[in-house]
């Protein structure tokens, strides 16, 4: 009885073992097929990622849809994808600046086909986006594909402190120079760097060729509006003799003066509030005070103040049509608080005196120079009025053995206007952080009109310093002279940079405007 039971149990165990073996073999087969499917899924995902990134790079370069699809197909195949890829697999959204790639691959079956005959595929999708990441560039040369967009010649050592340098073309160095940056030194061209002699380009965080072109970060900043020159005024005529023929003090009423006005001596000269037109030259020489009360002043043949005089200008409009507004000798100029508008039409402003400001703000003073020169000369230091200097032709001329200082200034150079530095002149200019016109980029110090290709020459010595943005979108910046120490603090955004001479200077990075480096990345 016991033996028969044992025999029956033994037969049942064999049946159970057989069934278990079938189940185990089924799970093993399933594991093989599923594992292979997952592996193929990873391959397809990698191919989709690579294809989307490749397409986005061409979207960044503004290439056609057909080129983007071809690049996506090429990179998908390079990463193991063997299926067909065409426009139906690639979705290009130019407004959102994305490329979406969808891939599906049939996967080989090993054992699963015995029990499952449905779809057995690996699918994946990836989305790459075109965007930008911030770049800490203190120096940006915009000239694309020019191998000498940044060109160093001679004993030039330029150090970019706390920032980097970027050329949309390349960089060349001839002589014993170097460009060293605390961040990266980048160029668009490949290899992008040409070195002759003991030259070097070096970035603490690397030197890179083949970088994407960086767009002009100020391309949307409008230029200052061209001022409207007031028309000629014709107040009532004031007949001679004029007050200067009498003992001082001298008082002039408003009106139209057709003869020279010339006062000299130690007395005070006062122009009462009102509207004036001087058809002939106006001059004062002496040690007294010349006061122009609030009003409208038109000078057709110039206005000069010399000696140890003090010139006090009240808020108003000052128009110079011919001749010069000249401040010479030890004369001192005082501007009181309020709105000032200066217009120079085929005229000039010459200053060798001292300027004192009483509560004026940058937005309250503007200069418009139409085919006129703004010149500071001599051997005494000069302080410039704060505000906007709009050059419509003409020259911003610095000459002599002096230091010229300007705080909260913006020089706009239009219609071929240029800057000319002569002698041992030094300059210390700081851009206005208060916008001087609607849409202005705060910090702009020098803005050369788009299309103005005049070379911007900056010659100086160790006392030269510019704070803010130097923006020359279509013109080269040429630095020369015995510059040493910190030459600029801010951002130089120029078409080209040419540096020659015995320069050992620093450009310190200070961000005023975001400079964005084009980039692509996966978002799905």
Description:
- The protein is mostly beta strands.
- Among the domains are: 2-116, no CATH class; 137-217, no CATH class; 250-360.
- Helices cover 14% and strands 47% of the residues.
- It is built from two helices and 43 strands.
- Strand 1 and strand 2 (98-106) form a beta hairpin.
- Helix 1 (2-60) runs antiparallel to helix 2.
- The two termini are 71 Å apart.
- The mean pLDDT is 85.
Give the helix/strand layout.
Blueprint: H1 2-60, H2 65-78, E1 90-93, E2 98-106, E3 121-135, E4 137-141, E5 150-154, E6 157-161, E7 164-167, E8 171-175, E9 178-181, E10 185-187, E11 193-197, E12 200-203, E13 207-208, E14 250-252, E15 255-257, E16 261-265, E17 269-271, E18 274-278, E19 282-286, E20 289-292, E21 295-299, E22 303-307, E23 310-313, E24 316-321, E25 324-327, E26 332-336, E27 340-345, E28 348-351, E29 354-358, E30 365-370, E31 373-376, E32 382-383, E33 387-392, E34 395-399, E35 403-414, E36 418-422, E37 426-431, E38 444-448, E39 456-460, E40 465-481, E41 484-501, E42 504-509, E43 515-522
Parallel strand pairs: 4-7, 4-41, 5-8, 5-41, 6-9, 6-42, 7-10, 8-11, 9-12, 10-13, 14-17, 15-18, 16-19, 17-20, 18-21, 19-22, 20-23, 21-24, 22-25, 23-26, 24-27, 25-28, 26-29, 27-30, 28-31, 30-33, 31-34, 32-35, 33-35, 34-36, 35-37, 35-38, 37-40, 38-40, 39-40, 40-41, 41-42
Antiparallel strand pairs: 1-2, 2-3, 3-43
